[in-house]
Specification:
Elements (H helix, E strand, L loop, with lengths): L4 H16 L1 H26 L4 H11 L1 H13 L4
């Protein structure tokens, strides 16, 4: 079964931390949280009317590009 982009991001972040240290991994995670806040803020009106269980699914969809961009950045820094 194929894993979600979020799961792939988390696995990549763990490997990144092992190779580059906690400080650099924390910086990546901080960027994720800032991007997440921006996405939530920009999309609040569109997703607000969904039931809470669906809001999480919609939000994860909206965060796909953020996950992919951060994974790519970590891989470019030398992850196998």
């Amino acid at each position: 079964m194929e894993s979600s982009t979020r799961e792939r991001y988390l696995r990549t972040l763990m490997r990144y931390q092992e190779q580059h240290g906690r400080e650099k991994a924390s910086a990546i995670q901080e960027r994720f949280w800032k991007d997440r806040e921006r996405v939530v803020s920009e999309s609040a009106e569109e997703i607000d009317w969904f039931p809470s269980w669906k809001k999480n699914q919609v939000l994860e969809s909206l965060l796909e590009k953020t996950y992919r961009d951060l994974i790519r950045e970590m891989e470019l820094e030398g992850l196998p």
